[in-house]
């Protein structure tokens, strides 16, 4: 509806120009043809043609009076039949005729009251008039109440108890007055016209009253008008009591409204003739005879009642009336000579008496004779059912296909639509035990109706019959809407229109009872009618535009202004009527309410009502689901979704197309529009061949016609692989499944489901080719496996894609000669190698299968690749991604389209994402070995997924130059292999598991030897930590020296250590002080060190520090070659000996000085070892210790043996971390690697100033100063990035402040 809004906006802007707009645009003029006397839009015209206000009001009244008023009781049935027949019999057999009736007989007294006119007319003229006015008041009141309730209130049911009681009263009184006792009431009123016309004009009964003078004339006119109204009500009610429900339990159910209408009219004539033609006896007798004869004929030939015995009963009763009227005719036409002697009884009196007795005694045989004749005629009329039963047997044996129009016509040639209806009554058969319809009878009736549809495809009565069959027999009311709409389009009679009206009411009731959805054809019709509203809406807006353009002319013509105004008013009235008609039916549709609000706002200029419509639209909304619309529409379950994989149709991923028998698309879902690249509304009304490539598009319509005529299905109810054509003329493969939803012959409706081809096997690529080997399309994995997008392959010979084209050409020759059985068995196969655009050739096995239709076959090549799928990416020299595979996109949580033409740096976490452009430039001119830890060296790095999560991967990069036009371009082919977080960590650290004594029991196998020069498994397992970690080695040296001194002098060993003391205890604590461990209990440390010759003491101290939450990382030295047990400490023996002479002097110092000296000497010792000539190569490292077993307080060997430690070693020069700071250099976030370099946890660095972590120049107080400093020192490096938002500086050498108080040499790179 946005187009309507844009139209209105543009029209408003055009009014203010003041220019000459005398010429209406061609589009406006074409649209205004509708309101200027031209042809209306088809949908709008259909709605305008439905403007039958009087008939709709009549139908509403009829439905109100008969709804829920069926005769199911035998007593009620007996009362109605007997009472109605007695009224008719009294019209023929009464004292006003020549019958000789003894009025004193009890039988006559019982019958006398039936026509209660005879009870009142002897009471006088005034009493008769009083009763007449009472009858008039009752009749007019019932009619008025019926009209008010059904037409004004538009309700035939209500939850209001008072209105519900009123409806019940109107229904009951209307049934009594217009259906049961109407003969007596009508006779009472028309008796006012029984006068001696031409002979005084006095009334027959009251001779003192002239029929042409007041007051009798006025009373007669009132009686006549009321009688006419009552006659119309009686006729309508007789038609309304007929029902299309073939399974109705109403004992008086009649599916033939036309016969009921004829019989009722004959009854009315009988009443008029019997009451008003007393002055014309012979004419009266003739007409009285004709009416029962015609009624009997209609009863016998049409059998209007659903129950056979009810037809026989009424036929017999009408035959009794024929017999009676025939005797009355004889009484009036037989001439007997009267004797001269009048004293003797006349012969005529005897004749009258004999005729009277003949009626009383002969009517019973006449009734039985009529019933017998009706029975035999009824059986004879049912005889064609044997043809349908035989057809069912042939169909069960497989010798006849009942789905084709030709076969249905062949079963039996119906003479008329009425015969179809009569034979369809065979469905009215119930199980005597369960009182449920018999399935065989329902199937037989369905076959009859379908054959009738094939014989009379456009007859409204047959279409209505079929709709009622679907509603009442199949119990699928929603599926009947299509037939009702077709019946309404084929110019139905008013009787059929009432049947359609009742069926539509049943559909509304089924929807209100819980079936709130729309059926398929109703949804199509709803969309069609909404489009009609929008069309009328647009015409109204254009008429307004034309009017204002006319007014804005420089010179005005009054005639033109009046014409434009009239056109605008007519367009607004037409649009208003169309909207109201559609809203009556779809008042809960949110879309319709929304555009109705816009119409009121922009056309009718009524903002308050528009606001109400908008609010209602928000509450209602539209929730129809196209897939749900098809659940009840199938005529049969053969080949249906049940028991098939197609039962799991997902409308979000599967395309659904609904077409008619001519191939026109009635409805498509959003997925279909997306698959084929069309906008919403573009496909509806187009032929389905638009979505097919040649030659399928040229031949599809002939396939439909062939199926309709022969019933031979080529693709129906089968899964087929087909090739579809997009709007941009590219092709794609799809699985197609088609079923027939409803209808037969040219009225059939089909549903097609398109689903993506199965790609469950990642090592199989499928290619669809013509029979000559030209590639039509391929699945999405072709580009993943062979480096060429599927779009570039279409149109090429498949043999050109292989390494050996001759092998593939021979394969296609074999394929063209293969049979379906060989292809299904997998016998048609070929082994070859396929070319890859970026990699080496790929070995494949190719098997063949067939797709398409039986007449137009396609070849499906199932290519099984004999290697694993590659996660591949190709980037140019600037980092732009030129090609990527689906496995890589899946790893990164995105699609291939999201990777191609993107930048490689966007896939990297910071800071690599900011530094990647510099690395790419350095890599172009670099020919040396890539640094350790680089992605080019095969190290594990991290890439970012679409959600921002880091994924560890390992890259294998190869580079090559390619000729692109006149230039040589550089390409990097990157194979991506997923790694684990453990692999990422193992490449940066050495993870060890040690026991309580410090012996390595396990080492991480993924750590490369190049990290520290150690093979973790071969060199470290079984060795003590002191054999390759210098701090543990120095602690062992101090421990051994302390043990040697203690063995020479017990006093020295027992010297007090409380003051910071002298002797070996100070030596033991030097390494602990350096590592910032708690050595307050020096005596305990001395005792433990003296007792053990292993690494347990220092390891225990480190474990305790970890458990207490202290600093978790320590700077250590790691040997590239572990020492043997006997060699531990030898390389530092000289340095230790030099220190021995000065131990006495240092012991005299204070406790604080001793601690500082110990720390200083230990650091100096480590530095000396790192720089000693001939010493084993050492690597600076960072160590952390964690306790795997939590019990360090136990005693005894068992406790010691159970304790396990985890020691992790990082190589210091390979650690890199990230710090995020704000503009004032306050740390916002720090990772653990940065914390490890500075000897603390990363979280401990947060909210600290950067210049307190690094020794920065004093003038740097903000991030801008830091960037400026980097630019000042390296102006050329930042020159190219000054204009960019994200600036990256060069590497800067700074000194970091370690937690142990010393400095750390670091390099930082600033980016902002």
TrEMBL record:
Any single biological process term in GO: regulation of DNA-templated transcription
PAS domain residues: 649-711
Compositional bias segments (type: Low complexity): 1140-1151
Claim: Lyase is one of the keywords in the record: no
PROSITE patterns: PAS
Keyword flag Protein biosynthesis: no
UniProt cross-references to CDD domains, sorted A to Z: PAS
Pfam families: PAS, TPR_TmcB
Transmembrane region(s): 105-124, 131-153, 173-199, 220-240, 285-307, 313-334, 355-378
Source taxon at top rank: Eukaryota
Region annotated Disordered, chain positions: 1-27, 1129-1151
Keywords tagged on the record: ATP-binding, Chromophore, Kinase, Membrane, Nucleotide-binding, Photoreceptor protein, Receptor, Sensory transduction, Transferase, Transmembrane, Transmembrane helix
InterPro entries on file: PAS, PAS-like_dom_sf, PAS_fold, Tiny_macrocysts_regulators, TPR_TmcB/C
Entry's Gene Ontology molecular function annotations: ATP binding; kinase activity; photoreceptor activity
Record's protein name: PAS domain-containing protein
């Amino acid at each position: 509806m946005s187009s309507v809004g844009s139209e209105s906006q543009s029209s408003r802007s055009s009014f203010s120009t003041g220019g000459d707009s005398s010429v209406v645009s061609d589009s406006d003029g074409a649209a205004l043809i509708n309101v200027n006397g031209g042809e209306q839009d088809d949908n709008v015209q259909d709605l305008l043609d439905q403007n039958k206000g009087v008939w709709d009001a009549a139908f509403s009244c009829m439905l109100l009076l008969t709804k829920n008023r069926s005769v199911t009781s035998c007593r009620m049935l007996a009362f109605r039949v007997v009472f109605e027949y007695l009224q008719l019999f009294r019209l023929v057999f009464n004292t006003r005729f020549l019958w000789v009736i003894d009025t004193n007989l009890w039988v006559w007294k019982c019958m006398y009251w039936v026509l209660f006119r005879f009870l009142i007319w002897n009471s006088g003229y005034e009493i008769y008039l009083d009763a007449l006015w009472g009858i008039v008041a009752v009749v007019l009141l019932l009619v008025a109440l019926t009209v008010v309730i059904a037409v004004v209130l538009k309700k035939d049911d209500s939850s209001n108890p008072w209105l519900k009681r009123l409806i019940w009263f109107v229904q009951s009184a209307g049934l009594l007055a217009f259906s049961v006792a109407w003969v007596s009431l009508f006779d009472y009123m028309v008796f006012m016209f029984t006068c001696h016309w031409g002979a005084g004009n006095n009334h027959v009964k009251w001779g003192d009253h002239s029929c042409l003078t007041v007051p009798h004339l006025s009373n007669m006119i009132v009686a006549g008008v009321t009688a006419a109204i009552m006659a119309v009500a009686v006729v309508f009610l007789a038609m309304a009591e007929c029902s299309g429900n073939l399974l109705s339990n109403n004992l008086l159910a009649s599916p033939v409204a036309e016969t009921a209408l004829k019989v009722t009219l004959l009854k009315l004539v009988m009443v008029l003739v019997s009451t008003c033609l007393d002055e014309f006896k012979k004419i009266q007798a003739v007409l009285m005879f004709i009416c029962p004869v015609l009624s009997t004929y209609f009863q016998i030939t049409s059998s209007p009642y659903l129950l056979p015995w009810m037809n026989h009963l009424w036929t017999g009763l009408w035959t009794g009336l024929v017999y009676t009227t025939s005797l009355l005719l004889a009484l009036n036409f037989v001439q007997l000579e009267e004797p001269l002697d009048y004293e003797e009884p006349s012969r005529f009196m005897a004749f009258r008496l004999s005729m009277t007795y003949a009626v009383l005694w002969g009517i019973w045989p006449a009734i039985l004779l009529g019933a017998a004749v009706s029975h035999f005629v009824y059986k004879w009329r049912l005889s064609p059912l044997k043809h349908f039963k035989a057809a069912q047997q042939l169909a069960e044996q497989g010798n006849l296909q009942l789905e084709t129009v030709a076969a249905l016509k062949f079963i039996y040639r119906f003479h008329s639509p009425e015969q179809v209806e009569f034979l369809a009554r065979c469905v009215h058969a119930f199980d005597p035990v369960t009182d449920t319809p018999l399935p065989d009878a329902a199937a037989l009736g369905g076959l009859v109706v379908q054959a009738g549809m094939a014989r009379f495809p456009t007859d409204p009565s047959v279409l209505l019959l079929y709709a009622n069959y679907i509603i009442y027999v199949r119990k699928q009311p929603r599926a009947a809407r299509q037939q009702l709409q077709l019946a309404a389009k084929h110019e139905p009679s008013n009787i059929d229109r009432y049947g359609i009206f009742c069926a539509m009411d049943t559909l509304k009731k089924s929807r209100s009872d819980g079936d709130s959805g729309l059926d398929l054809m109703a949804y199509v019709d709803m969309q069609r009618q909404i489009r009609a509203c929008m069309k009328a809406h647009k015409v109204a807006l254009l008429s307004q535009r034309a009017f204002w353009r006319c007014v804005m002319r420089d010179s005005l013509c009054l005639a033109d202004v009046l014409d434009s105004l009239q056109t605008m008013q007519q367009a607004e009235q037409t649009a208003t009527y169309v909207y109201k008609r559609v809203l009556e039916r779809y008042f809960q549709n949110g879309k319709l309410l929304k555009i109705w609000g816009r119409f009121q706002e922009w056309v009718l200029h009524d903002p308050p009502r528009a606001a109400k419509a908008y609010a209602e639209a928000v509450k209602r909304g539209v929730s129809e689901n196209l897939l749900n619309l098809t659940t009840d529409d199938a005529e049969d379950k053969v080949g249906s979704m049940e028991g098939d994989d197609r039962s799991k149709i997902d409308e979000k991923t599967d395309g659904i197309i609904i077409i008619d028998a001519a191939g026109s698309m009635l409805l498509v879902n959003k997925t279909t529009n997306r698959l084929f690249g069309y906008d919403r509304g573009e496909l509806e009304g187009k032929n389905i061949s638009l979505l097919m490539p040649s030659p399928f598009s040229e031949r599809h319509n002939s396939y439909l016609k062939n199926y309709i005529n022969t019933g031979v299905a080529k693709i129906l109810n089968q899964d087929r692989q087909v090739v579809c054509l997009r709007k941009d003329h590219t092709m794609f493969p799809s699985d197609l499944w088609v079923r027939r939803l409803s209808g037969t012959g040219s009225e059939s409706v089909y549903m097609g489901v398109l689903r993506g081809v199965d790609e469950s096997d990642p090592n199989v690529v499928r290619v669809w080719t013509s029979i000559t080997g030209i590639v039509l399309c391929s699945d999405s994995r072709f580009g993943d496996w062979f480096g060429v997008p599927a779009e570039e392959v279409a149109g090429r010979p498949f043999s050109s894609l292989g390494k050996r084209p001759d092998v593939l050409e021979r394969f296609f020759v074999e394929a063209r000669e293969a049979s379906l059985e060989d292809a299904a068995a997998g016998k048609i196969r070929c082994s070859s190698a396929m070319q890859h655009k970026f990699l080496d050739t790929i070995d494949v096995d190719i098997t063949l299968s067939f797709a398409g239709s039986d007449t137009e076959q396609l070849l499906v090549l199932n290519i099984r690749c004999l290697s694993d799928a590659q996660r591949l990416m190709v980037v140019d020299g600037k980092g732009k991604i030129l090609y990527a595979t689906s496995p890589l996109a899946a790893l990164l949580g995105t699609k291939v389209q999201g990777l191609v033409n993107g930048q490689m740096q966007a896939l990297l976490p910071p800071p690599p994402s900011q530094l990647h452009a510099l690395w790419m430039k350095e890599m172009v001119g670099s020919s040396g070995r890539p640094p350790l830890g680089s992605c080019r060296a095969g190290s594990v790095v991290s890439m970012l997924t679409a959600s921002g999560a880091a994924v560890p991967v390992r890259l294998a990069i190869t580079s090559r130059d390619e000729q692109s036009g006149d230039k040589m371009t550089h390409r990097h082919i990157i194979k991506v292999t997923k790694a684990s977080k453990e692999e990422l960590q193992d490449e940066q650290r050495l993870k060890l598991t040690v026991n309580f004594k410090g012996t390595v029991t396990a080492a991480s196998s993924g750590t490369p030897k190049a990290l520290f020069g150690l093979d973790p498994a071969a060199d470290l397992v079984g060795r003590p930590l002191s054999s390759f970690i210098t701090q543990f080695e120095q602690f062992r040296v101090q421990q051994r020296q302390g043990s040697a001194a203690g063995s020479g002098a017990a006093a020295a060993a027992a010297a007090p250590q409380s003051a910071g003391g002298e002797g070996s205890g100070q030596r033991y604590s030097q390494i602990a002080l350096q590592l910032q461990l708690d050595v307050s209990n020096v005596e305990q440390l001395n005792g433990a060190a003296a007792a053990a010759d292993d690494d347990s003491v220092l390891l225990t101290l480190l474990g305790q520090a970890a458990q207490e939450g202290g600093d978790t990382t320590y700077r250590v030295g790691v040997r590239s070659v572990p020492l043997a047990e006997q060699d531990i400490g030898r390389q530092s023996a000289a340095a230790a000996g030099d220190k021995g002479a000065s131990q006495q002097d240092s012991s005299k110092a204070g406790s604080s000085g001793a601690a500082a000296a110990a720390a200083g000497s230990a650091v100096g010792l480590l530095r000396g070892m790192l720089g000693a000539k001939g010493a084993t190569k050492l690597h600076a490292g960072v160590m952390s210790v964690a306790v795997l077993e939590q019990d360090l307080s136990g005693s005894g060997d068992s406790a010691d043996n159970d304790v396990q430690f985890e020691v992790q070693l990082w190589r210091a020069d390979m650690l890199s971390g990230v710090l995020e700071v704000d503009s004032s250099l306050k740390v916002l976030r720090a990772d653990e690697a940065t914390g490890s370099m500075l000897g603390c946890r990363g979280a401990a660095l947060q909210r600290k100033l950067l210049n307190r972590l690094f020794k920065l120049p004093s003038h740097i107080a903000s991030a801008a100063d830091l960037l400026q400093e980097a630019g000042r020192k390296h102006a050329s490096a930042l020159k190219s990035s000054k204009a960019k938002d994200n600036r990256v500086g060069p590497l800067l050498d700074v000194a970091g402040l370690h937690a142990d108080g010393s400095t750390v040499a670091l390099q930082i790179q600033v980016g902002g």
